[in-house]
Design a protein that fits this description.
By secondary structure, the chain is mainly α. Among the domains are: 95 residues, no CATH class; 56 residues, no CATH class; 112 residues, no CATH class. Helices cover 47% and strands 6% of the residues. The chain has 21 helices and nine strands. A four-stranded mixed beta sheet has the order 4-8-9-5.
């Protein structure tokens, strides 16, 4: 590296730091937080530290060792949790988004809290809200207030996050997913049942050729009994005109049910409320009870494309966590058996039915743009839907060196900076190498709300004009024009040779 720098024109401190730490992991990485720096060093891991500026703990050099320690710790945690009675467990540093699709989530109950605990909870929540309102908008909280709010958060969490209680019989065929959350803490997702582990149940259905199910009907049973009695009484069964059969011909059965199907179509077309209920029933069956069969007469289906393989790290985003919470909310509210869903919908209020309908429809959205899939009309419709919803992707995504700038050309990086900050700012970084340019672009565009074209909503884009112009008062200079203490280099200082590292 020393030899390479001696031949390079770019010897700024941030460039040297980037070269030294390339491929390393920051101490703030969720794997490092989960394993712990002490455990990493005890296993022989090396930490690189910066002697000249604050490095937030340094960089872990042995990434393979860190991953191994993280998996070992996850495996130990999973084995301890299996003692609760779970049938299986899976571990991963990161699970792809959507890894629980197709699995049933067990309903859970929670231990009741005493009147004393409820009173403490209410008091803590009221005090926390009062302190939040009192110091709303303050840049820094007083130390004593910050300490008190932390205590109140623990008090509230002790009630809100009390452990879930599951049916022991259900636990015996369910499992858990064990991973690391975005903050570096152990993440345990309990109570998921695979389709092959579902308890086998026999549902009596009316078969096409009559059978035992029809024998349960009073009228059919009487007819069958009369027919059998006629035969046992010695009367002739050869006379087709006098024999009464419980079975209709397949052709007649199809003819009658065709009339009924058409009548149901007309009746449903004239009853929007019933149609909405029937559509919600069909969509919920597919979304929450999809196990290879369809238990409804409304043939409306949705598909939900798997997104985890297209965007690494998607599961750690706030929007993914919110979507998972919505899925869990409905899984725990809906009845366990698909046969009970219709009755549940009839008893549910309009808000609950509408919420379920909206969730199921939402999960069917596919706005993916793939090179091998020419879906121009579908993508146009996605734009129209985003317009109608007023979707602002800047609330869910921001351009960084990792998420965008490191994956596009230098020309695109400069175009983004030029669009968001003006030509003068773009010219200030146009001489940098690709990696350095990506890092500077991330810093310069932070908080601007700039989005690449595929993520833009036209109406919002028109409403917000791009900020352009020369760097003025309050405009942050790029890191390579600023010393580590924040002082801008003068022209004379720029001409002076850099001090040697030994000095």
């Amino acid at each position: 590296m020393w030899e390479g720098l001696s031949r390079s024109y770019n010897k700024e401190p941030y460039t040297i730091r980037r070269m030294l730490t390339e491929g390393a992991v920051k101490v703030g990485d969720k794997r490092a937080v989960f394993v712990g720096v002490d455990a990493y060093e005890a296993a022989g891991g090396v930490i690189l530290r910066d002697l000249f500026v604050h490095d937030h703990g340094g960089w872990l050099q042995d990434v393979a060792l860190l991953d191994r320690l993280a998996r070992e710790k996850l495996r130990e945690a999973a084995e301890a949790l299996r003692a609760e009675g779970w049938k299986w467990s899976e571990i991963a540093i990161d699970f792809p988004y959507g890894h629980t699709n197709g699995l049933r989530r067990l309903p859970a109950s929670y231990a009741p809290i005493s009147e004393e605990e409820q009173a403490r909870y209410d008091a803590a929540l009221a005090e926390y809200n009062a302190l939040s309102d009192e110091h709303e908008g303050a840049d820094d909280l007083p130390e004593e207030v910050d300490h008190r709010m932390a205590e109140l958060e623990k008090e509230i969490a002790s009630v809100d996050e009390r452990p879930a209680i599951y049916d022991p019989d259900e636990i015996a065929r369910a499992g858990i997913f064990v991973s690391i959350d975005h903050a570096g803490a152990l993440k345990v997702e309990r109570g998921f049942v695979r389709p092959e582990d579902e308890a086998s149940t026999t549902v009596t259905e009316i078969s096409a050729d009559g059978g035992a199910a029809r024998a349960g009907n009073g009228l059919d049973g009487a007819i069958v009994g009369d027919a059998i009695g006629a035969r046992t009484d010695g009367s002739s069964s050869a006379d087709d005109e006098t024999e009464i059969s419980a079975k209709l011909s397949d052709r007649l059965l199809s003819e009658l049910t065709a009339h009924r199907t058409l009548a149901l179509r007309l009746a449903l077309a004239n009853d929007p409320d019933a149609a909405f209920l029937a559509a919600t029933h069909a969509l919920a069956l597919k979304s929450f009870y999809g196990s290879g069969h369809f238990d409804g007469c409304i043939e409306v289906e949705t598909k939900s494309v798997f997104l985890g393989s297209y965007a690494p790290g998607l599961a750690d985003t706030p929007v993914a966590r919110a979507n998972d919470e919505a899925n869990g909310h409905w899984q725990l509210r809906l009845p366990k058996r698909s046969q009970d869903l219709w009755d549940w919908l009839l008893k549910a209020d309009r808000d609950a039915t509408a919420g379920l309908f909206a969730y199921c429809v939402g999960q069917s959205v596919n706005a993916l743009q793939l090179p091998h899939d020419r879906r121009l009309r579908a993508l146009e419709h996605a734009d129209q839907l985003a317009e109608h919803l007023g979707l602002d992707m800047s609330a869910h995504w921001a351009p960084t060196a990792e998420s965008y700038f490191g994956k596009v050309t230098k020309a695109r990086i400069l175009a983004a900076v030029r669009e968001a900050k003006g030509e003068a700012t773009a010219q200030m970084i146009d001489h940098l190498k690709k990696a350095d340019m990506a890092t500077e672009a991330e810093r310069l565009l932070q908080g601007t709300g700039w989005l690449p074209e595929p993520l833009r909503t036209a109406s919002l884009e028109a409403a917000a004009d791009a900020q352009t112009g020369e760097i003025g008062e309050g405009e942050a200079l790029p890191d390579f024009l600023v010393e580590d203490d924040g002082d801008t280099l003068t022209d004379a200082e720029e001409d002076e040779p850099h001090a040697a590292a030994a000095e």
